[in-house]
């Protein structure tokens, strides 16, 4: 009986571990969450109501947000889906934010103060076309002018009040593309200008009330248009012809079309290909020719004349009406480390309203976009502020010659993440500064004691919370004993590298990738991936670790690559090189040279492999292992294995370049299978034990190989969206392939299933998530692979006598004797990404970190996806921790590690071990960033932060006192006894 | 004559059934396995071994036997090609099999047979060079057996030093998907020692083993109805926990009991000596009392 009680207690305890969650007051202690919006595309200022000054922005990450102009904080924000790109933003009726998205097929209105959706209208769309949103600027609110939307071949008029489609006009038949919609104020006629096949200009006059075409005029233009257009006034637009050498002014006064051609060579001597800049200026347009920006004034009769030109690269804003019927615009240009902001009147370019010079961080790059806004100063004159978007995607507000606030929006587009250690705390360096004095320390502990004894007043609770957040020097810039303080290095799409502190998420340093040779072709490389280059252990005190940033010039796959080596502690670029070949794959090798630089192989498009670092020492190390270096490539439906062949010195004089030859191929039949996902184990993963002990004292040897590749294929028909095919048409096949010999070790086909497949590979198991069309549910399958060849090593005598093959070298050329166990479970949620926790020694049990469709992260114990789960586990199996089989994986609300936060637009989860075995770092990125520390089996190897040392001390003191008192008492008693 | 053929048929049927009888092991995950009909008493089931002429003569009879019943079956042949190191590929053998077309349109390959060409003199030299250099012996198969070579060749390689034993032992696992070959695993049937020793084969004849594999179907995810879950709740009486040994049940009581007993025994043995000491102590006490 007692055994049973003991067992039930054990079971209870083990299940208690599962219900792992935070207490409310623990939120924000170890985790942090940062909200971003991405690179701003459009900005609309709203300053009608004084006081609450805000700006509405839409971004390349499909976010529409309202920002506080004073502090740059987000008032509200909505992240639209990844396929729901925003085409235009406007403000209607002074209270609604109107967004057009999905190529002009979805129109939404959001309430300006709180961001709630007011209405949503889905517009009919027949074909892909450029989309256009025209929101009337109406000064009289009572009159309802319709919103004119063009997209997908249709022109729609939508009521701003309730989103009702008032009328629509079908232009699909003619191939008519609307370029401009003009709504002259006070008139019910709207002018719609468009091109048919870019060779014929058509102007429709449409009654905005009924949608009837009042008049239609068209005119052929023999040369054809290029599509770039700038509207200069209410009745004139300027376009470029298809040769980009002639500017054509199209006037459509009262519906009559007139062309007026002006060759660019007339305007400027050294003509070339011209480009119309997107800035909207009244009666003027900005043209970029030969890296010079020309301001061309458009006269009354469509006559063009150059009024000004700027030599270096300049960013411009749209023009903005200021007092007395005049319009002003802002321009920003660089000069050294400074930027100059100028606000000029459009009509009188010599009249500079504002000239400001601002010191700018070199690591922000150039100015990409400027949005200007004016305000009335305290002295009733016009003031200007400018919102600028920099090359690194950061957003800054300039006002009165200073940067009022800045947002690092590059962090919304993280592409690769790695972690790095902080410098070791050197003796005598200001560590003591952060420590509290003894009195404060005591006070803190007394407060904590109060809290734990439930004596704390509400103020005390607040104080305790504050103390906790600030406590334990978690924000120090030195390495700590537990490895809790680390740097997270995040590479962003614009090519900027950020180092974030795990303690509070602040940016320790940031660095923008530069082109090494400053060549014309590659001004700014974009970042691809990030590798640990040098992690010094032997010289940890006097050598700094460094990372390798691999970048590329341009988006083409054969574009030349750029390598940059960055010091992790300081964020300074040590060196960078233009490697002169393309980068297809970067392979870190398991070798380091004497300075602990890791050897890397980079494969190019030609099929050559290049060794880095280019030193003779690295070459000699590599030559030693030359025979044993294999690599593989994954194409659309072929996987090829390669081996090193020889130096490619016959073709080039480069001795660090090697040729390879094909060893094996796996050819998937193109009519039935298409690769949708491949995955390998993390190269730095630690496996604690190779054997697994069963409940019946049986041993299973894990097949732990670094050369396993997980591949998932679906039928080509099933590669589309979920539900687009019938179950009979789609099947999913998964493979485990040895990448040295190309052997298929495991192959399993799921009939009637469909991607997308999200998988995670760790130790000897793979867990993957897909959709089951027959069951109409998502499923998760686990595959564990075990080694049979070592199964005979169970006998103790064999081990003692040395008759085992455990120490024999393992070669891939032996025929593998493996077997797999697998099981499928239903999972109620759609998944964006899956990761697994990783700890320093791999002893702690693992948790799957599932990024759900709701942008949260769910921690699921690996025990739930154990293939050995059975319906009625025996007593012994229960003791081992096997959970009774269920058909669905549980989603426990407390197991969301993101608790109340959402990591909007979640794209990836990265885990890294801390020095403490129980704990792992988790960093999730998307539009937002989220970091937390996780202990999958609770912190069994350390006391928790809120452990009350004071209580322990008091107890000890009390005990010692009690012992002393009783001792004295007993002495006295004994004495009196003796004297009796 | 007809009787003779019938007899021959019957004998083959008996032989094949005897193979099936012997063949219990190892076939767990192999749907189809090809075997050369020649050596009926061969214990290795999925073997197609060596290229002696008499075996090749026998194969046609089997072929006829299986081709008769259904028209859907057709026979296919595809060649194995090999290359020594970086040399070009040249024919090295022929696979022949039947292509079975199922009613639902799927195709499977059955009854695979393999005839391996022996190495010619130059090939032997080339292979010896491979052994010396520890280089790769590469083979390839067409990726589609109906329309060879299909889209691409399926290539596999092995270090040449892994093959030689007594003869040249090779092992093919051909992964099929319908009439397509996805991949071929090629190597020695057993382990390949590392570091690889240079060893020339005693016989220059191939001993080939071939397995055809097609994909396994994933088991359906179990769906539990309410009843099963309901029955699970009253499962307590259904399945009594397995009986344990006396020791496993009561060790926690037995060990302390044993300790107590041992303690008692030692005390008892001490007690035997004690009476004398106890009396002596008592004798000493008395004078002290008197002194008082």
TrEMBL record, chain A:
It is found in: Endoplasmic reticulum membrane. This is ER membrane protein complex subunit 1. The chain crosses the membrane at residues 947-970. Belongs to the EMC1 family. InterPro entries: Beta-prop_EMC1_1st, EMC1, EMC1_C. Residues 21-409 form the EMC1 first beta-propeller domain. Residues 1-21 form the signal peptide. GO terms for cellular component: EMC complex. It is a single-pass type I membrane protein. Keywords: Endoplasmic reticulum, Glycoprotein, Membrane, Signal, Transmembrane, Transmembrane helix. Residues 762-979 form the ER membrane protein complex subunit 1 C-terminal domain. It holds the Pfam family EMC1_C. PANTHER family: ER MEMBRANE PROTEIN COMPLEX SUBUNIT 1. The lineage of its organism: Eukaryota, Viridiplantae, Streptophyta, Embryophyta, Tracheophyta. GO terms for biological process: protein folding in endoplasmic reticulum.
Automatic annotation (TrEMBL), chain B:
Residues 38-69, 273-292 are annotated as: Disordered. Residues 47-61 have a biased composition (Low complexity). GO terms for cellular component: endoplasmic reticulum membrane. Pfam families: ECM10 (PF21203). Residues 1-20 form the signal peptide. It is a single-pass type I membrane protein. The keyword Phosphoprotein does not apply. It is found in: Endoplasmic reticulum membrane. Keywords: Endoplasmic reticulum, Membrane, Signal, Transmembrane, Transmembrane helix. Belongs to the EMC10 family. This is ER membrane protein complex subunit 10. The lineage of its organism: Eukaryota, Viridiplantae, Streptophyta, Embryophyta, Tracheophyta.
């Amino acid at each position: 009986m007692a055994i049973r009680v003991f067992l039930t207690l054990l079971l209870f305890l083990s299940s208690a571990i599962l219900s792992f969650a935070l207490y409310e007051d623990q939120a924000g202690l170890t985790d942090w969450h940062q909200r971003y919006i991405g690179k701003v595309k459009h900005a609309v200022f709203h300053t009608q109501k004084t006081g609450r000054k805000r700006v509405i922005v839409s971004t390349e990450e499909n976010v529409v947000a309202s920002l506080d102009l004073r502090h740059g904080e987000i008032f509200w924000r909505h992240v639209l889906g990844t396929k729901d790109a925003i085409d235009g933003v406007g403000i209607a009726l002074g209270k609604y934010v109107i967004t057009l998205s999905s190529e002009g097929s979805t129109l939404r209105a959001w309430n300006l103060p709180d961001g709630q959706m007011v209405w949503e209208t889905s517009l009919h769309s027949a074909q892909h076309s450029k989309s256009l949103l025209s929101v009337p600027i109406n000064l009289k609110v009572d009159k309802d002018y319709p919103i004119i939307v063009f997209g997908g071949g249709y022109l729609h008029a939508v009521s701003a009040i309730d989103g009702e489609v008032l009328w629509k006009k079908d232009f699909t038949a003619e191939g008519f593309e609307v370029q401009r919609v003009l709504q002259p104020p006070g008139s019910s006629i709207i002018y719609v200008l468009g091109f048919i096949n870019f060779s014929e200009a058509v102007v429709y006059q449409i009654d905005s009330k009924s949608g009837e075409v009042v008049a239609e005029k068209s005119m052929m233009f023999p040369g054809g248009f290029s599509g770039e257009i700038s509207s200069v006034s209410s009745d004139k637009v300027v376009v470029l012809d298809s040769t980009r050498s002639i500017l054509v002014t199209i006037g459509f006064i009262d519906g009559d079309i007139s062309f007026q051609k002006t060759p660019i060579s007339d305007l400027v001597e050294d003509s070339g290909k011209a480009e119309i800049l997107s800035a909207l200026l009244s009666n003027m347009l900005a043209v970029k020719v030969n890296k010079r920006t020309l301001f061309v004034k458009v006269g009354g009769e469509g006559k063009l004349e150059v009024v000004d030109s700027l030599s270096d690269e300049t960013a411009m804003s749209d023009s903005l009406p200021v007092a007395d019927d005049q319009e002003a615009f802002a321009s920003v240009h660089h000069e050294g480390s400074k930027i100059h902001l100028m606000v000029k009147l459009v009509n009188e370019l010599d009249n500079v309203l504002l000239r400001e010079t601002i010191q700018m961080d070199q690591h922000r790059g150039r100015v990409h976009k400027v949005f200007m806004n004016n305000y009335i100063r305290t002295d009733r004159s016009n003031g200007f502020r400018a919102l600028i978007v920099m090359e690194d995607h950061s957003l800054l507000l300039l006002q009165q010659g200073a940067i009022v606030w800045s947002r690092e929006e590059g962090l919304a587009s993280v592409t690769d993440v790695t972690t790095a250690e902080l410098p070791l705390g050197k003796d005598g360096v200001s560590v003591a500064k952060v420590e509290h004095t003894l009195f404060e320390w005591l006070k803190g502990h007394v407060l904590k004691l109060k809290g734990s004894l439930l004596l704390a007043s509400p103020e005390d609770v607040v104080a305790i919370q504050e103390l906790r957040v600030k406590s334990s020097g978690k924000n120090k810039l030195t390495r700590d004993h537990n490895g809790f303080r680390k740097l997270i290095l995040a590479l962003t799409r614009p090519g900027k590298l950020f180092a974030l502190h795990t303690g509070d998420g602040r940016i320790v340093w940031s660095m923008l990738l530069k082109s090494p040779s400053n060549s014309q072709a590659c001004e700014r490389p974009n970042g691809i991936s990030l590798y640990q280059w040098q992690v010094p252990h032997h010289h940890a005190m006097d050598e700094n670790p460094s990372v390798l940033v691999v970048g590329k010039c341009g988006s083409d796959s054969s574009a030349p690559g750029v390598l940059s080596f960055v010091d992790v502690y300081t964020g300074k670029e040590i060196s960078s090189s233009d490697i002169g070949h393309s980068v297809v794959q970067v392979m870190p090798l398991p070798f380091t040279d004497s300075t602990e630089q890791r050897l890397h192989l980079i494969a190019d498009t030609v099929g050559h492999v290049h060794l880095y670092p280019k030193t003779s020492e690295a070459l000699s190390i590599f030559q030693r292992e030359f025979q044993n270096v294999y690599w593989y490539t994954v194409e659309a439906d072929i996987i090829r294995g390669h081996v090193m062949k020889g130096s490619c010195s016959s073709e080039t004089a480069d001795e660090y370049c090697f040729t390879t030859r094909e060893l094996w191929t796996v050819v998937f039949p193109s009519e039935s299978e298409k690769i949708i996902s491949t995955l390998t184990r993390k190269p730095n993963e630690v496996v604690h034990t190779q054997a697994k002990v069963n409940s019946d004292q049986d041993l299973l040897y894990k097949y732990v190989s670094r050369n396993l590749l997980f591949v998932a294929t679906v039928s080509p028909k099933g590669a589309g969206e979920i539900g687009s095919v019938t179950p009979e048409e789609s099947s999913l096949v998964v493979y485990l392939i040895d990448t040295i010999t190309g052997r298929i070790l495991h192959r399993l086909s799921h009939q009637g299933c469909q991607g997308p497949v999200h998988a995670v590979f760790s130790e000897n198991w793979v867990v993957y998530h897909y959709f089951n069309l027959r069951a109409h549910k998502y499923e998760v399958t686990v595959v564990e692979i075990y080694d049979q060849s070592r199964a005979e090593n169970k006998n103790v005598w064999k081990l003692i006598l040395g008759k085992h093959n455990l120490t024999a070298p393992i070669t891939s050329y032996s025929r593998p004797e493996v077997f797999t166990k697998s099981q499928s479970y239903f999972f109620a949620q759609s998944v964006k990404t899956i990761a697994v926790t990783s700890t320093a020694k791999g002893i702690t049990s693992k948790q799957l970190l599932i990024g759900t469709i709701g942008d949260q992260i769910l921690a699921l114990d690996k025990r739930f996806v154990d293939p050995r789960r059975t319906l009625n586990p025996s007593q012994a199996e229960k003791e081992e921790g096997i959970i009774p089989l269920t058909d669905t994986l549980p989603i426990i609300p407390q197991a969301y590690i993101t608790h109340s936060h959402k990591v909007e637009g979640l794209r990836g989860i990265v885990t890294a071990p801390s020095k403490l075995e129980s704990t792992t770092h988790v960093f999730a990125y998307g539009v937002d960033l989220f970091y937390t520390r996780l202990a999958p089996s609770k912190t069994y190897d350390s006391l928790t932060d809120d452990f009350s040392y004071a209580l322990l001390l008091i107890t000890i003191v009390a005990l010692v006192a009690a012992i002393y008192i009783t001792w004295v008492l007993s002495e006295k008693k004994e004495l009196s006894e003796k004297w009796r | 004559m007809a009787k003779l053929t019938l007899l021959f048929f019957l004998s083959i049927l008996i032989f094949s059934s005897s193979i099936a009888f012997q063949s219990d092991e190892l076939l767990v995950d192999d749907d189809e396995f090809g075997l050369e009909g020649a050596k009926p008493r061969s214990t290795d089931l999925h073997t197609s071994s060596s290229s002696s002429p008499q075996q090749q003569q026998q194969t046609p009879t089997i072929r006829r036997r299986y081709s008769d019943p259904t028209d859907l079956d057709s026979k296919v042949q595809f060649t194995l090609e090999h290359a020594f190191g970086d040399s070009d590929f040249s024919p090295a053998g022929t696979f022949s099999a039947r292509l079975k077309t199922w009613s639902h349109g799927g195709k499977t390959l059955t009854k695979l047979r393999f005839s391996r060409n022996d190495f010619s003199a130059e090939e032997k030299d080339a292979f010896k060079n491979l052994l010396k250099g520890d280089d790769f012996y590469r083979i390839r198969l067409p990726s589609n057996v109906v329309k060879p070579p299909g889209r691409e060749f399926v290539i596999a390689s092995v270090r040449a030093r892994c093959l030689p034993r007594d003869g040249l032992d090779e092992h093919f696992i051909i992964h099929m998907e319908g009439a397509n070959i996805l991949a071929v695993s090629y190597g020695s049937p057993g382990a390949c020692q590392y570091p690889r020793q240079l060893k020339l084969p005693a016989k220059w004849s191939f001993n080939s083993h071939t397995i055809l594999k097609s994909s396994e179907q994933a088991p359906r995810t179990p769906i539990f109805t309410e009843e099963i879950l309901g029955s699970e709740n009253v499962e307590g009486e259904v399945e009594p926990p397995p009986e344990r040994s006396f020791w496993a049940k009561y060790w926690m009581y037995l060990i302390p009991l044993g300790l107590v007993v041992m303690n008692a025994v030692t005390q008892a043995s001490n007690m035997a000596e004690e009476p004398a000491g106890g009396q002596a102590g008592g004798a000493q006490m008395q004078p002290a009392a008197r002194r008082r």
